[in-house]
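Bumping with the actual sequence this time:
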Amino acid sequence: MPDQCPPFTVELQLPYPAQPVWEAFVHHFADWWPVMTHSLSRDPRTCCVLEPTPGGAVLEVTPAGEHQAWGRVLEMDEGRFRLLFTWHPGREPDSAQWVQVEIHSTAEGCLLSLTHGGWEALGEIAPLLRQEYRRGWPEVLDGSFRSWLAARLAH
């Protein structure tokens, strides 16, 4: 399984300094996350939350007020712009993978790197879900997150 499903990394070069990109990703997660395409309810009134502290929840709050656990923050390093959390939307916590987000300054602005691994926790469905997330994370980052940033950070 590990040979078939290694972690993958999605990178996004952005023309903004690392600090505001970090703030947007972590502290405004609920504002930019694309709930219409990447939530369990697919309802525009849904809110997806990332509580930015070790042990904090990553969850979906439905319009009815139901909480759907997506994961838990494992590590949060504001100084190094690094976040590590578990990830299991729509599944039990024992099937959780891990997601690491790092943001590094570059000459052009910054580079956001998202690495998704831990596929072995999914058993037989791991290759299929890995393939879906391999397509999905670029849509979320290059689509929703980039657009949200451009609307707020462009000068």
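The tokens above came from a reply further down the thread. The mean pLDDT is 95.
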